[in-house]
Design brief:
By secondary structure, this protein is mainly α. About 60% of the residues lie in helices and about 5% in strands. Helix 1 runs parallel beside helix 3 and helix 2 runs parallel beside helix 5.
Length: about 240
């Protein structure tokens, strides 16, 4: 999430709170392209098709629909919902907000995924009209994205607990989705540069500490469950 001015808009005074959260054709195009690229990135990682990965099956080998669905769900909840949460809060505060992709960031994500890891910076929700002095507005808009990730992570982890208890294999992919969302939340809460954490920190040190500690704890929990213990109960 960042702010204007941009070539496609101008600085303006805040309008009254908007009753709807309409989008434009430009935003739909940008977010669709970003979603497809990020899904493809995750698909490469999940299916082990990175060109520099030992034992890679090859980039053009057949891909299971299971990996396609898992990658799409991760991109939808970890990325799309995150950006739309920024937009929702900014629009409720009365400001123009739309997502814009970052072509170089999308290209970088493809390069890293082909190397066997993922660094994703597909774009950001642009907010216009909100003065930089409105620390509360920027902080609330900034924290909305990570909060949406943590809500999804909680839901996925809870579902993993249920499916593990009944002996279903679904707990594995559900743990992965929980992990992806905690990664997005924790990374974006780092108090650096244009990341959400910097805006939350400027708004309130206490709120940033709480948000970051919760996100980091959730990340450690999901990472341990997925990679170390192999179950949401942290037991074999």
């Amino acid at each position: 999430m960042t702010s204007g001015p941009f070539s496609y808009t101008v600085w303006s005074r805040a309008a009254p709170p908007l009753p709807s959260h309409a989008t434009s054709r430009t935003e739909l195009t940008h977010i669709t392209i970003s979603f497809l690229v990020l899904t493809f990135d995750l698909l490469i990682i999940l299916s082990g098709r990175g060109l520099l990965v030992s034992g890679s099956q090859g980039l053009f080998a057949p891909i299971s629909l299971y990996f396609v669905g898992l990658a799409a769900a991760a991109a939808l909840t970890g990325f799309i919902a995150h950006e739309m949460a920024h937009k929702l809060v900014a629009r409720r505060l009365g400001y123009w907000a739309e997502f814009r992709m970052w072509p170089f960031g999308l290209f970088l994500s493809l390069l890293t995924s082909l190397s066997g890891f993922l660094f994703a910076a597909p774009g950001a929700t642009m907010v216009n009209g909100m003065p930089m002095s409105d620390l509360r507005g920027w902080g609330q808009t900034g924290v909305a994205g990570p909060v949406s990730n943590l809500i999804f992570a909680t839901g996925f982890y809870g579902a993993a607990l249920v499916t593990f208890h009944v002996g279903s294999w679904l707990y594995g992919p559900l743990l992965f989705l929980a992990l992806i969302n905690t990664v997005f939340a924790t990374f974006n809460l780092l108090p650096l540069g244009p990341l959400d954490g910097a805006k939350v920190l400027r708004w309130s040190l206490g709120r940033w500490v709480v948000a970051f500690v919760v996100a980091a704890f959730a990340l450690v929990l999901c990472w341990s469950a997925f990679y170390t213990y192999g179950s949401p109960l942290l037991a074999w």
